[in-house]
Structures are given as structure tokens and as C-alpha cells.
Design a protein that fits this description.
Elements: E1 4-7, H1 11-24, E2 27-33, H2 40-44, E3 47-52, H3 63-72, E4 77-79, H4 89-97, E5 101-102, H5 107-114, H6 116-125, H7 141-151, E6 155-163, E7 166-171, H8 174-192, E8 197-201, E9 207-215, E10 221-233, E11 236-242, H9 249-265, E12 270-278, E13 284-290, H10 297-304, H11 308-316, E14 333-340, E15 342-343, E16 348-349, E17 352-353, E18 356-358, E19 365-369, E20 376-377, E21 384-392, H12 395-408, E22 410-412, H13 418-426, H14 428-431, H15 439-446
Parallel strand pairs: 1-2, 1-4, 2-3, 4-5
Antiparallel strand pairs: 6-7, 6-8, 9-10, 9-12, 10-11, 11-14, 12-13, 14-21, 15-16, 17-20, 18-22, 19-21
Helix pairs in contact: 4-5, 7-8, 12-13
The site of ligand MV4 has 17 residues, from strand 8, strand 12 and strand 13.
Length: 451
């Protein structure tokens, strides 16, 4: 097993990894920016190394600084968390060359799934359903017109190097197609240095359902069921839950089998997530794969009792998974609310100092957070200050528990999304399980903001 792990991340996920390491008897080094000197990760890790200034480009994204930090502190592995370098194949490769284990999948898996067009073609080869669309990137304008006419409008243009909602555009009719193509190409070139674009039929009002998997380096792969992440705004998830209210047992079996098939096809190891769209007829389509641990992983931990971070560390060290598929059960219902420090109506960040803080507790409530009373939120990073995760026997019990937990959450000094989350937890739409990727848009339209 590893003796010491460098954590190449910050905030609640850095703390989550430190907690797993402590329980496993592994020492930790927090690599941090000057903006995070007062962070709980720095305080709770065994050691800390400053790797640069607040701007992520000069610290959390700076590969040479992270490798040096790992070398001078004698770390034998690096955990990248999510975001930052977690899906950077080059970083995973450099770690390997320096004899430091990257706690994640192989660089080849990251590269393969990082190109969304290649990921789509790979899914097709593995027999996993995808939305009708172009086989590979669009080469010529005429191809784009031909494909769109074949599959029918609306279509969606996506940058091969995009993902997570970045670099995509919906096209409603033929007259918009060529202009849209040029815009997405230019945007993709500027943002990713890769202008290649592919096309899909646009699925209206879908649900976002993802399947969590875990694989080891011996070819064992298990799934940990699904998460429904349909409640998002501008591709930022607000609420996640498991199980999904729209999966029948039959559909769940098909989707988990598809995820396992694709994972075996690419010889995947570590934690990973297959993202699917599900339409109102119960058809599901592979969208993309996330080759990292995700923000919303606690929802899965609550319903399965599997510690995803510990398993990720174990398999990175070459150990087999500690359990088999037959040992995994799903029980009860879990909901996660992301609490962001932002104006909940305008969704603009609200930086500042947390003057007063009380976080919820009690039965079935888990808080993943790295803030404390007196903490000054740095302006450089995302605005999430806590995740409130509940677990209860039924979905309605979980909703009651989340209402209770949000009611106990008290923050002063910064505006948060707690009032919006509370309103959603009390809304008929959420309670009835009729969520979709248009939920927030419709919700904010129908329910005027409280004065
Ligand atoms: C789509 C789609 C409809 N049709 N693809 C957004 C994130 C990225 N992973 C894929 N996304 C979408 N791809 C087709 N062919 C709609 C979305 C989408 C979406 C998906 C999940 C959750 C929220 C969303 C919000 C807008 C668009």
C-alpha cells in the first residue's frame, strides 16, 4: 500500500481524500496555493506544500510544481480529486514516468474518453446505444447538411474536445446549420485547440442519468447503480439523487449492463462514470464518460455503503476490489444538495467571509465541506461551500430529511443557494419526481423569487 499520498486538489474533495487516507493509515501531503494556506486540507493533512499563487493556472494546474512537491515529500502516489488535472492524460503519464502512481485510470483511458467523438465511436463498437448522429467528426459542410437532413432537426453540434456542456450548440433548422458549424468550430479551436465537431440528433427535455463504476487492475469491474443529475443550471448540477425516479428495474439492468460492457471494452480501472440521456419513452443514450471521481459520489456511497475513495486508492495500488457485484446492494434513497456561495436568483458568485456558520447534523445527514466560521472564500475557485447529503428509507423520507437539514443550515456573511434548494425541496414538481434538465429554467419561471 502507499505510504504517503499527495493531494493535488483543494476544498471539500481534498478533505474527503485526507479522511479516507487517515482511516487507511496512509500519510498525506496537501499541495496548496497561497490562497488556501488557511484551509482545512492544509490543517488536517500530515504535511503541506505551497505550490504557487491563487490562480489555478499557477498552482493546481501546474504539473512541474505538483511533481516536485510529491518528490520532495517522498509521496508514492498523487490523488487529483475532480476538476483541475484529474482528467489530464499528460499529467497521468508524467506521474507514471516519475514513478508516482496516479490515482485514477490509465492515461490511455483518459485520452480515449476525453475525445467525445472517439468515446461515441467506442460506445458504438461496444454495442452501447448512442443518439443518432455522425460517425466521427464532420469533415465537410456538405456532410453536415446530409447528416442533419437524415436524422432530422433539431440537431446538436458538439466539439470533440468539449464535454460537460462546453462547446456545443443546438441547431433548429437547416438555415442555421452552416453558421452554427462555423461558430462551434471557432469556439472549439479557441477553447480546446481542436476544431473538430460531431453531430447528434437533439433529444428534447431529457433526464441525465449516470452509472457509477469501479474497476481494478485485474479486470474486475462492478457498477454501483445510478445517480439522477437532471437538476442543473448552465451545466452546473444543483441536486443529485439515487436511485433515479424514472428507472424501472428492467431499464436499470440494461443501463448498468451497457456501462459494464463499455468499461470492459476499454479495460477501464479506477472510479468512472458513464453519463446517459434518458428520454420520456425510456430510451437511453450514452453521452460521455467521466474518468474521475465526481462531486456527487457521496450519493452512491450512501445507498451502497461502498467507500469509493478508499476503493480508488486500493485499486491504484494494485489490489483487487474489496467486493464483487453480488455483494453490492442498493438500499434506501439519497439526495445531495450543493450549497453554493452565490446569489441564488442571479447565480453570480458571492465571495467574502463566512461570519456565522452552523451546519446540519443528526440521523442520516452527511456534510462534505471545507469551510468554517471566519473562513474567507477565495475568489479564484468555484463557489461550492458544502454538500448536504441525506439518506433515508424512501424518497419522501429523504425529502423530509433534506428539508430538515437545510433548515438547520445557517450561514451569514455570504449569500447562498440554500433558499432556492429549500423551495425546490418543497415544490410539487420535485416531490412528484418530475425532474428534467429543464427543471430549473421552468422552476424559476413559474415560482417568482421571494422578496
Ligand atoms: C445532448 C442533449 C440533447 N441531445 N445531446 C449537456 C452536457 C453534455 N454531457 C451533453 N449535454 C447534452 N447533450 C443530445 N444529443 C442535451 C444535453 C444537455 C443536458 C444534458 C444533461 C443535463 C443537462 C443538460 C442541459 C442542457 C443540455
Amino acid at each position: 500500500m502507499f505510504k504517503k499520498i499527495l493531494i493535488a486538489n483543494r476544498g471539500e474533495i481534498a478533505l474527503r481524500i485526507i479522511r479516507a487516507c487517515k482511516e487507511m493509515g496512509i500519510r498525506t501531503v496537501a499541495a496548496h496555493s497561497t490562497a488556501d494556506t488557511e484551509s482545512l486540507a492544509v490543517r488536517f493533512a500530515d504535511q503541506a506544500v505551497c505550490i504557487g499563487p491563487g490562480e489555478a493556472q499557477k498552482s493546481y494546474l501546474k504539473i512541474p510544481s505538483l511533481i516536485s512537491a510529491a518528490e520532495v515529500t517522498n509521496c508514492d502516489a498523487i490523488h487529483p480529486g475532480y476538476g483541475f488535472l484529474s482528467e489530464n492524460a499528460g499529467f497521468a503519464e508524467v506521474c507514471g514516468e516519475c514513478n508516482i502512481t496516479f490515482i485514477g485510470p490509465s492515461p490511455e483511458s483518459i485520452r480515449l474518453m476525453g475525445n467525445k467523438s472517439v468515446a461515441r465511436e467506442t460506445a458504438v463498437k461496444a454495442g452501447v446505444p448512442v443518439v443518432p448522429g455522425s460517425d466521427g467528426p464532420l469533415e465537410k459542410e456538405a456532410d453536415a447538411q446530409k447528416f442533419a437532413a437524415e436524422i432530422g432537426y433539431p440537431v446538436i453540434l458538439k466539439a470533440s474536445a468539449g464535454g460537460g456542456g462546453r462547446g456545443m450548440r443546438i441547431v433548429h433548422e437547416e438555415s442555421e446549420l452552416l453558421d452554427s458549424l462555423k461558430i462551434v468550430q471557432a469556439e472549439a479551436g479557441a477553447a480546446f485547440g481542436d476544431k473538430s465537431i460531431y453531430m447528434e440528433k437533439y433529444v428534447t427535455n431529457p433526464r441525465h442519468v449516470e452509472i457509477q463504476i469501479l474497476g481494478d487492475k485485474h479486470g474486475n469491474i462492478v457498477h454501483l447503480y445510478e445517480r439522477d443529475c437532471s437538476i442543473q443550471r448552465r451545466h452546473q448540477k444543483l441536486i443529485e439523487e439515487a436511485p433515479s425516479t424514472i428507472l424501472t428495474e428492467k431499464l436499470r439492468e440494461k443501463m448498468t449492463a451497457a456501462a459494464l460492457g463499455l468499461a470492459h471494452h476499454i479495460k477501464y480501472y479506477s472510479a468512472g462514470t458513464f453519463e446517459f440521456l434518458v428520454d420520456d419513452k425510456g430510451h437511453f443514450y450514452f453521452m460521455e464518460m467521466n474518468t474521475r471521481v465526481q462531486v456527487e459520489h457521496p450519493v452512491t456511497e450512501m445507498i451502497t455503503d461502498v467507500d469509493i475513495i478508499k476503493e480508488q486508492i486500493m485499486v491504484a495500488a494494485g489490489h483487487p476490489l474489496s467486493f464483487a457485484q453480488k455483494d453490492v446492494n442498493m438500499y434506501g434513497h439519497s439526495i445531495e444538495c450543493r450549497v453554493n456561495a452565490e446569489d441564488p436568483e442571479k447565480f453570480t458568485p458571492s465571495a467574502g467571509t463566512i461570519k456565522e456558520l452552523h451546519m446540519p447534523g443528526g440521523p442520516g445527514v452527511r456534510i462534505d465541506s471545507a469551510v468554517y466560521q471566519g473562513y474567507k472564500i477565495p475568489p479564484y475557485y468555484d463557489s461550492m461551500i458544502a454538500k448536504v447529503i441525506v439518506h433515508a428509507p424512501t424518497r419522501m423520507d429523504a425529502i423530509h430529511r433534506m428539508r430538515r437539514a437545510l433548515g438547520e443550515f445557517h450561514v451569514e456573511g455570504v449569500k447562498t443557494t440554500i433558499p432556492l434548494l429549500t423551495r425546490i425541496m418543497h415544490s410539487e414538481e420535485f416531490v412528484s419526481g418530475k425532474v428534467s434538465t429543464r427543471f430549473i429554467e421552468e422552476f424559476l419561471k413559474n415560482v417568482p423569487p421571494k422578496q
